[in-house]
Amino acid sequence: MARLSPLQKKLKLQQKTRSAKQSNALAQATIDSVTLPMGKHIELLVDDFSHDGRGVGRWHGKTVFVAGCLPGEKVQAEVVHDHKNFAEAKLLEVMQASDIRQQPPCQHYNDCGGCQLQHLQPAQQVLLKQQAITQQLSRIAKVTLPAWQPPLVFNDAGYRRRAHLATRYFADSHTLLLGFRQAGHRHIVPVAHCLVLAPSLDQLLAPIRKTILATADPAIYGHVELLQTQQQPLVVLQVQQSLTPMDKTLWQTFAAQQKVGVEVRQPDDISFFGEADGVCYYQLPALAGQSEGLKIGFSSQDFIQVNAEANAAMVQQAMTWLDVQPGDKILDLFCGAGNFSLPAASLGAEVLGVEGDATMVKRASENATRNGLKAAFKQADLFAADASKHWRGEQFNKLLLDPPRAGAKDIDKILREQKLEKLVYISCNPASMARDLKGLQKLGLRVVKAGCIDMFPHTPHLEVMTLLERV
Questions:
Q1: What are the extents of the domains in the chain?
Q2: What is the value of pTM for the model shown?
Q3: What is the architecture, at CATH level 2, of domain 162-273?
Q4: % of the chain exceeding 90 in pLDDT
């Protein structure tokens, strides 16, 4: 039988009295028949805000996503992609602006791909991101959230303690581009200053560029990473061939003048200059009843949260929501270097941290020893169907879950034998979190509390914490 086109489906459905299901099918067929040629200019009334920070409007029923728009605005946009059920367009003009729109504070906003929401007032950023997450949780996981807890919000400037910059050298003019990637492109947007970088890192941009240009071959520098550690700022350089003796002298001088550490990753060696030695630290603040916080060690290649202040508050909230008590048995999945495991252990809980990266497991064990804590850590593939064998025979009453952006698919299947009282789930991806919460509810748990941590101001990303308790 020949396959009907969307328009033929629409005409067929119009020929008889329709049920609710047929009416929905007709509405969808109508939308499917709407085409928006690439390059077409359209006017839209933006009525929603997507989870990735784009404005959402409708063109003859078809959903159109436009970056840089806000709910309530009337805009002119140019179609860049047309799909079956939706289209994407770029903003040409804001014809009627929202009251919550602001002048972007950064001069690089229109080009740089880093801070997509600077046109939106900071306080409103959190509210709109919360609304988008609520919609996703309702649609995907069928979870109706209790009222959001007050958000954890911090300074929206100078908050990044880590940044990755790209480089490109032009030999004919002896110039170097040092900056961030352009939104949607591989092009480099050169930056002399970055609004969201920690001031100690921001002031290094010009000296780094000058020093690279003074080396024997600036073209060998692939990218630059900046990292604010507890000890000092750290500059990490990725190079394509070994440094010459002259280059080593240049970077040693740079480290001394700028009072920073320098780590140069060469194909067959790693060189350290200044006080850098390959071991970095960050400090977690003391929890209630403690005189000092924990010292967490990591390397420049390890994952850590980019916002130190937000991370500290997030850890403290997780301990409070989980109500960590002496005698608790806590399982921490995707534990990393012990960001949550070690604070829980410091409160008297018996903790097992499980992580897929063997290097991070070693790092977490070293951090436990460094802080005089007793906690166990194991390496395991937490996406494997038999992952629970690593804690077979053990019962835990509480669980911490902080997976990567992809989430923890089928996590409920490896937790079936556990009689959990409380579970705290932290996520930076509402879509994967919604999927996972749907599975966790099968264990007899329900979401009783939700809150957000604005870890990445001026971006669509929002860290979300949920507390699940046994029904």
A1: 6-100, 131-155+306-470, 162-273
A2: 0.88
A3: Beta Barrel (2.40)
A4: 83
Mean pLDDT of 229-245: 96
The encoded tokens of residue 410 equal: 């089928």
For residues 58 and 72, the answer to whether their CB atoms sit within 8 Å is no
Pick the CATH number of 6-100 from 2.40.50.140, 2.130.10.10, 1.25.40.10, 2.60.40.10: 2.40.50.140
Strands in 374-470 per DSSP E: 376-379, 398-401, 422-427, 445-453, 463-470
What's the pLDDT score for residue 366? Answer: 97
Distances (CA, A) of 426 to 23, 55, 380, 434: 40, 26, 20, 12
147: how many CB neighbours lie within 10 A of its CB? 7
Whole-number Cα distances in Å, 165 to 179, 221, 228, 338: 5, 11, 15, 27
Q: Which amino acid is at 366?
A: E
The DSSP result for 450-471, as a single string, is: EEEE--STTSS--EEEEEEEE-
Instruction: Please state, in angstroms and rounded to a whole number, the distance separating the CA atoms of residues 103 and 74.
Output: 17
C-alpha span between 445 and 454 (Å, rounded): 26
Does the pLDDT of residue 31 top 60, yes or no?
no
98 vs 222: CA distance, rounded Å:
41
Q: Which CATH superfamily is domain 131-155+306-470 in?
A: Vaccinia Virus protein VP39 (3.40.50.150)
Structure tokens at 296: 């967490």
Q: Which amino acid is at 171?
A: A
What letter would DSSP give residue 168?
Answer: E
CB 281 within 8 A of CB 302: no
The answer, yes or no, to whether residue 24 has pLDDT greater than 70, is no
Closest alpha carbon to 294 in 247, 253, 347: 347
428 is catalytic: yes
User: Which of 349, 391, 345 is closest to 369 using CA atoms?
Assistant: 345
List 115, 194, 428, 452, catalytic entry: 428
Cα three-residue angle 216-220-226, rounded to 5 degrees: 105
Rounded Cα–Cα distance for residues 166 and 211 (Å): 15
The secondary structure of residue 398, as a DSSP letter, is E
**Amino acid found at 239:** V
First CA to last CA distance, the chain: 51
- Residue 315, judged by CB atoms within 10 A of its CB (0-12, 13-18, 19+), counts as buried
Q: How many Cβ atoms from other residues are within 10 Å of residue 323's Cβ?
A: 13
Q: Is 447 helix (H, G, I), strand (E, B) or coil?
A: strand
Q: Contact 125/115 with Cβ under 8 angstroms?
A: no
Cα separation, 317 vs 465, in Å, equals: 9
Burial of 337 by CB count in 10 Å (0-12 exposed, 13-18 middle, 19+ buried)? buried
